[in-house]
Write a structure and sequence with these properties.
Length: 373
């Protein structure tokens, strides 16, 4: 994240960003609330993206001082107990590393009182203007085939520097849910990395016109890359090279729903987080057969309008907007009437497995299963 929202000391302390994993897309039906528009009070079908956002864990706090050359970090204070998920991030190959000693010395000094973290926190309170927490995702809660946590700094906005440090230090080793940072109907920004396409030629990369069929030595080329003089190729001439896998920030994505985890603390699973007031069918956000190339969404999720950067399973950073949102679409209240959970692998006909079994009746495989019992 290159930029966080501008700080306002009059507001209470709050975090300004979060991390999640792109699960896939579906569509919803809602009533449009735009007086004066032809769409007013009519149903609209819109595409939405589901981003799985299990709670993040705060493991540190960093203080920054302002200098003529920008921000400079003054000091960092870490929590006493750091999970293996986080410590894996500090190793190129966790499996082959023999010692796994990251932060063992730091925690020992903390327990022996040789390193006084309270003293460092006081320094941050005294000298720093910008305070950020270091937080990591919980990989054990998502099924994306990775154990190494993603780590980021999240700026704390609101209150005085003293309030910020106290707010951050209270969050040490605590799980921070997404609903404590964002609300429904809020406009947010999405930071992520686009889908990679590798090394591509000019026709694919810059969409230049193909040359005529009879062209000698190929036709997916640029006919002329510049005049003799100046004797260099201008930056504006399309050339072959890397396409995709670029860092991008998309602004003004509206949150349509912040859903609760289907998997509860006691281990039970409750399929209710895609139910609406108008569609009382008990169903979870995971479509039949799971999201393609992702699987089931069992944790908290954020549903945003439209698409977002990246492939499935890619880490996405959600950030509070940098601007004051006053447009009609930004302040419109969203009430979902229906969330589609039919299979995304082909032409899905059924919303739930119950609905499918009622329609198809008793199948041969059911009889075989009963006979086997």
């Amino acid at each position: 994240v290159k930029k966080f929202p501008r700080d306002d000391a009059s507001k209470p302390c709050h975090l300004t960003a979060f991390m999640g994993y792109k699960a896939g897309m579906t569509h919803i039906v809602r009533d449009v609330d735009k007086p004066g528009s032809k769409q007013h009070k009519k149903e609209a079908v819109e595409a939405v993206t589901v981003i799985e956002t299990p709670p993040m864990v705060v493991v540190g706090v960093v203080g920054y001082v302002r200098t003529p050359r920008g921000l400079r970090s003054l000091t960092t204070v870490w929590a006493k107990h750091l999970s293996d998920e986080f410590r894996r991030r500090l190793y190129k190959n966790w499996y082959k590393s023999k010692s796994k000693k990251a932060f063992t010395k730091y925690t020992k000094e903390e327990s022996d009182k040789a390193k006084n973290s309270d003293k460092e926190l006081e320094r941050i309170k005294k000298y720093c203007e910008v305070v950020r927490v270091i937080a990591h995702t919980q990989m054990s809660k998502v099924n994306i085939g990775q154990k190494k946590a993603h780590v980021m700094e999240i700026q704390v906005n609101g209150g005085s520097p003293k309030d910020k440090v106290e707010f951050a230090s209270k969050l040490f080793e605590q799980s921070v849910p997404v609903k404590s940072i964002f609300n429904q109907n809020e406009m947010i920004d999405i930071c992520g990395v686009t889908k990679g396409h590798g090394y591509k030629g000019v026709t694919s990369r810059w969409h230049t016109t193909k040359l005529p069929r009879k062209t000698h030595r190929g036709l997916r080329k640029v006919g002329c890359i510049g005049s003799w003089h100046p004797a260099k190729v201008a930056w504006s001439v399309p050339r072959a090279g890397q396409k995709g896998y670029f860092h991008r920030t998309e602004v003004n994505k509206k949150i349509y729903r912040i859903g609760d985890a289907a998997k509860k603390a006691d281990g039970s699973i409750e399929h209710k987080n895609a139910t609406t007031e108008f569609d009382l069918t008990e169903k979870s956000i995971t479509p039949m057969g799971g999201f393609p190339h992702y699987g089931s969404v069992m944790e908290d999720f954020v549903m945003i309008k439209g698409c977002c950067v990246g492939v499935k399973k890619r880490v996405i950073t959600l950030r509070k907007t940098l601007l004051a949102q006053t447009s009609r679409s930004a302040v419109e209240e969203i009430t979902l009437k229906f969330v589609d959970t039919s299979s995304k692998f082909g032409h899905g006909r059924f919303q739930t497995a119950d609905e499918k079994s009622k329609f198809l009746g008793v199948l041969k495989k059911d009889i075989v299963q009963q006979a086997a019992k």
